[in-house]
Amino acid sequence: MSSKMVNHTLNAILDIIREGVWDWDAKTGHVSRSPGWYRMLGYDVGSFAEDVFTWENVIHPDDYARVMEHFEAYTTGKSDLYKIEYRCKKADGDYLWIEDAAKIVDRFADGQVSRMIGAHLNIDDRIRAENDLKKKNQLLKQGNLSLEYLLEDKNAELEFSNKQLEYKIKQIETLSTTDALTKVGNRRNFEITLNNEVARAKRYHHPLSMIMLDIDFFKKINDEHGHQTGDEVLIGLAGMLKEQLRENDCIARWGGEEFVMILPETTLYQAHILSERFREMISGLHFSKGLTITCSFGVSEFEKDEETDDFFSRIDRFVYQAKERGRNCVVAA
Ligand SMILES: Nc1nc2c(ncn2[C@@H]2O[C@H](COP(=O)(O)OP(=O)(O)OP(=O)(O)O)[C@@H](O)[C@H]2O)c(=O)[nH]1
Questions:
Q1: How far is the CA of 333 from the centre of ligand 1 (A)?
Q2: What is the ipTM metric for this complex?
Q3: How many Cβ atoms from other residues are within 10 Å of residue 226's Cβ?
Q4: How confident is the model over 64-103, as pLDDT tens digits?
Q5: Ligand 1: residues whose CB is within 6 Å?
Q6: Would 186 disulfide with which of 160, 169, 179, 327, CB 3.0-4.6 Å?
Q7: How far is the CA of 83 from the centre of ligand 1 (A)?
């Protein structure tokens, strides 16, 4: 059979089978997924970005750490098998139990993974049946099967209260990680996100950059136009920046007039270009009484094996240097 025919046949198979087959190219970060993967979870075929974020974002939060640990153990050679059961989020918001099994098919000269392929299998019915059986066994052991219906009623009630509680916890979590004035992330949100993204950059050997900016002569704006105008500037600037960023980027207010952006999958070069674009866009912002502002920027890319604190203090230093160079400029390294 010619290779064209083999490809054609393979594509037809991938289109038919119900398992979700995935293929991760670590060189480019590209992940292709078969139509079965989308159908299994109820999403439109091809409706997600073809990167690892899509996978990580559908994993149940309670399973996430376990899955990452297993993945890292396999890719770093600590374990010789990648096979794990966990829950993935469906289009309707519910979770589906799947079995994920994969194999490394190619490595770089230094041993790091360059390509890995795998398949997600729907095992939801099996897990639910097992759980049901466990529950019934437990009831039988207690000689209390007649109480099953009563318990089921109680369970439904509890489930409802749990959902309400979960919603309240989510609301509190959002409040505790949001800056009250500008509605972007606060310092806590920044610290959590930075730690997660550094771990992710190390795990996948992907680039990670950060931009920090500080409004120039902000004290003068407050002194001359009033604190309320100062607040308006902070809100307007944060809103503009947030609108420009991608879904997986993070923006947080670090200090009074200082904002920081965490940009996964972004090189220093790309972050530098973005900073220059922001610098120009900021000069085009007009606030009350025709007020305009400028900002000083620091840009940096995470260096393999460095400490998160060193990554952050480097960028803080660059903002300081931008101020020293006369403000309204970008310092990158
Ligand atoms: N309106 C308003 N002002 C704030 C807020 N938080 C901090 N500030 C003010 O931000 C100003 C920061 O001033 P400085 O740190 O001296 O910096 P700057 O005037 O911007 O000067 P350079 O950074 O050197 O260009 C102070 O006057 C703070 O009172 C806030 O939430 N609202």
A1: 26
A2: 0.94
A3: 13
A4: 999 999 999 999 999 999 999 999 999 999 999 999 999 9
A5: 181, 214-220, 222, 227, 230-231, 234, 256-257, 323, 327
A6: 179
A7: 53
